Amino acid sequence: KERLLFWILLCATTCGLSGCGWQTYVASRTISHFTGKPTRFHSITPINGSLDHYRVVEVKPLENLLLGNIPPQMEDYLNETISKQLKSISSKPEIVAFDATAPATARPTLLFEGYIDDYDAGYFGLRLVELGFNHVAVTVRFQLRDKQSGQIIGAASITAQDDRVTASPRAAINTIAKRIRGFVNSGYGGRQ
């Protein structure tokens, strides 16, 4: 009995002297697991008018500023996912791939273009034990430009970061593509 009482008092004293840091850790880790996907959206040029008269959106593949740092299959996945998301815009503009050799058209065309500014796949092992900067992060900067006049209609930068143990670059890319769709959709009268 005395031995059990000793261990209970020792554990209670240890918890009391540690400032109950383990409780803070458990609480922050639990919250981080469910909300560990912060997305930073910065509107560089807000869409001020309606995009309804642009019934064609040409999607140019994102320029890769991180040569050798992003696997080609992830770059392809990013471009494909953005195109898929743009095709789901509620007013259904025609989404076409950019073709530099295509003849000019009289139809008002919106050009989607941009670049991959950051890509960090992190490391699962470090996320598991929470050591260092081990998050997944992807940043894309893009603009919507009137193809005929060259005027920038809207521009933004989106960073998707995921600190969860289950984080993946694909999940971050999906988040970015959905935010891009929301930004463009807001110009077509939809919700961002």
Report a brief summary of the structure.
This protein has 192 residues and is α/β, with parallel strands linked by helices. It is built from five helices and seven strands; from the N terminus they run ααβββαββαββα.
Salient structural properties:
192 residues; 7-stranded mixed beta sheet; alpha/beta
Question: Overview of this structure, please?
Answer:
This protein is an alpha/beta fold and 192 residues long. It is 38% helix and 27% strand. Strands 1, 2, 3, 4, 5, 6 and 7 form a 7-stranded mixed β-sheet that branches. A hairpin with a 5-residue loop joins strand 6 and strand 7. Helix 3 runs parallel beside helix 5. The chain is elongated. The protein starts with a helix and ends in a 5-residue tail after the last helix. The model has no long low-confidence stretch (mean pLDDT 80).
